[in-house]
Fold:
Amino acid sequence: MEQPHGEKKSTGHRWGMVIDLDKCSGCGACEVACMVENNIPFVEKGDYQRSRSISWMKVVPETEGTFPEVRTKFMPQPCMQCDNPPCTKVCPVHATYLNPEGIVAQVYWRCIGCRLCMAACPYTVKYFNWHNFQQAQPAAMTQYANPDVSLRDKGVVEKCTFCHHRLMKVKDQARLENREIRPGEYTVACQDNCPSKAIFFGDLNDPHSEVARLADNLRAFRLMDELGTQPKVIYLAERKRHD
Amino acid sequence: MKISRRHLLVGGGTMAAGMTLLKGLVPDSADSATLLDDWTNHQEEWSLSVCQQCVGGCGVMVRQMDGRAVRIEGNPLHPVNQGGLCPKGLASLQGLYDPDRLTTPLRAKGKRGSGEFEPISWKDAAALVAGRLKTLRQEGKAHTALMLGGQFRGQRHGLFSRFWSAYGSPNYLRLRCVAPDEPAAAHAFMNGVSSPLAYDLAESRYVLAFGCNLLETGPAPVHQAAQFGRLRVRQDGGAHVTVVDPRMSVSAAKADLWVPVRPGTDGVLALAIAHVMLKENRYDKAFVAAHVQGFERFRQQVLAQYSPAIAAQITGIPEDTIRKIAQDFAPTGRPGEKPAVALGERGPAYSGDDLRTRLAIHALNALSGSLGKAGGVVLQTPAPLAPWPALPQDAPAKTGLSHPPLANRDMGALLAALKAGKSSAKGYPVNALFLYYANPAFSLGGGREEWNQAIQNIPLVVSFSPWLDDSARQADLILPDAHWLERWQDDSVSHLPGFASFSAAPPALPAAGGLPTEEFFLELARALGGTTAQALPWKTYGDVLAHKAQGLYGAKRGAVTDPKGPRPVGAFGSFAEFWKALQTRGAWADNRPGNPLARPFNLSPDVPGKEYWVNALLAGRQSALGAAETKAKTNTPSEAPGNFPFQLVTFKTNTRSGTRGANQPWLQQNASHHLRQGWDGWVEINPDDAQRLDIDDQDPVWVSSARGKIRMNARLYPGTRPGVVHIPYGPGHQGVGRWAQEGENPNQLMATTFDPHTRQPLWGDTWVHIERA
Structure:
């Protein structure tokens, strides 16, 4: 595993997410909740059609079969926050790295926009800023920007950070109060707003956490686990009820 | 647990926030000292409101930084959404800060409809409207003022209603395809209820939804998604969900079984299920004996006419599937068994026989004995809000109200009355038209030409739309409403959750220049004086809500949500204390559902029509089917336009929220999840049909009906029945804003027909022709 970046030592946390596909209603609230929280720009029609839209969380549909034997499955896909991430290994400037708490970070100011990490990511969950999108938009539409999260410039790659700014805030608060982070204190935007409560988030190293318990569920699986990426986003498969 | 957020609520909402500059993500820079200085002393504030992007009534929290709204999220304490929020709600700040939103009153310059407007002051605008209304009243023409209201929420409906009754016009009408605060006509006929029925989905054993896209566009989508989440993880394995819909909606995809019924034949399918239950003795006999009237007649006719074999021919659903659904849906009589529910809220038919279709669906609830049980069908109890005070009316008001209204929720009749004006026998020309949350030029079948023609002779057209929408473009005066985050917002959930609740919150943000329309009407009442002013004695809309909330306090029922657990109304020392808690915590709720069996359930109610409804349904559907087969006979690429072989069924995805939510780019970008298609509209075609017409995925096609022709891209979607095409409703505005105009409005193709009994527009009665463009 890679050397952690910077001077910080591991605090023993290992953040992970569990998504219960049986509870997921396919509504896509997670996508927009993430956009609001993380200052993700909208893209207009032209760029949308060139597949230049950015969606750190995306609900991917998979339709199989022919009428009337058709099924569509919906799978919300954020960055899988791999424990063995392929993307960090190819970065020539150390702009993307696995941090001590298991979050795959992206340093925008260091990124040179080569997009090797995008090519390396088997989940295609890293996104390139083809423009300075916010600058191109009417100024009024930047008023709702979240002041906790920086805007990204043209030419850099971005991705889901597990709402890392929230972790920083929670840590600051804990430090002020001279205590450890409480279980459940650090939450992410997609989880908070999920209408059917299908997204769980927490410390996989804490055996008492809900995510650790669910990760051991018989329905648990990881996407493309066979590649050896060791994702920390864990899915719970839909149960079969019909014949 | 969101301790910090709740702490903010408890602390009264304001504190200085120490801003954290993305430590670990952004390296330190020499500028950070100055940046920090700019960034550290900011005022963070959380305020509450009730989301108005649809009728769901979700509680929201808005995070503000120095007076700017920077985040919106679900209120974790709110009983409707419990912290969840859908894409529409989450994107609403894009509506708030939309550069195309109107914030000053506008007056048409030159000819109406030319699209040229000039700003005027609120004072002049109010004087103009008040002057015109005064004159009409003096001339004995108070009844010729018409206000059309759309799908808006809260007590403002009562306020407008009062205003027009005091003024003297019977023509305050609401234009909406679903009236969530009223029971469906079928339920009123069968159950004799006067408030809507509700479904305890999370605790039910089997959910049989007809045409109801519960998870996307149901009456309270976030609440329903929460119930879906709960029913899926129940200890007993959870409920079985079956969705009957010609199109595989997201709800159908998430269901355990999708039943792709032929459009408009849901009622026949429901009665065939009833047939199997009756024939195999699988209905709840004890329940039927105790509570059901008209059973024998129903039983005989259903057994005689609705065999699965006949239903299979009509609905296109195999006999075995029909039997299987009936057997799974039927009660087994095991002790402690949870009930099964059949629901057809929101558009199973929207084609001829709308009422009878819904009767057929609701009949299943009686056969399975699921009424009045936990996990079954319950009654929505209204919140015990204080009644409106007695209404003072003077002679001109009484004269005005003695005229018959132009229409009664029947848009077809209204359009005809508007067009006829003086020329019809009991009609009269309209002299002033007010549009609030209504955009008929977009939402009516037939589209803008139909509407513009209907209003051309009305001397004063006023729109309260905060966007220059399709209908506002044709107005003389636009008096932009404030955004819902800028006004007092209340909602009394009236539909589907089954519990009573009431939310009220003061404006979350100061108004950008628009004026809440309800405040405008209070002002107008004062300007008109006399009994109109006496009828609306409140200074602000907040005072109206305080008056209404006194009823909740007086009833001593229910509780106010609180971080420490619901606080019973009885625990508050005074009304002031209760009222303050209501505004700062989000909602009052009373969990006790009502009893839907106060009157016996009638399976053979006396409904309009000469024939018994069970017989009429089959006859109607058989003749419709005959017509459909004739239409679908020829279906080749060379076929001449004018022949319409495909049935058009429109739908909505959960990112469309009406005219007021149309200009939000995040929603445009996320228009659909099942196809991941953004921005444009599209037409969904079955891949086999497309192959015969030589159409590929994303090919541009012309879709034409007897009424119009639109061009859009084809999407090959196997979740489409052969012979049917689907176009999403929502894109294609003329106006509203820069992001709302992409795509085409399927209403341009729609037939303007209405069900004679329920007054619902029959969206399913349109047939189209498709060819490559």
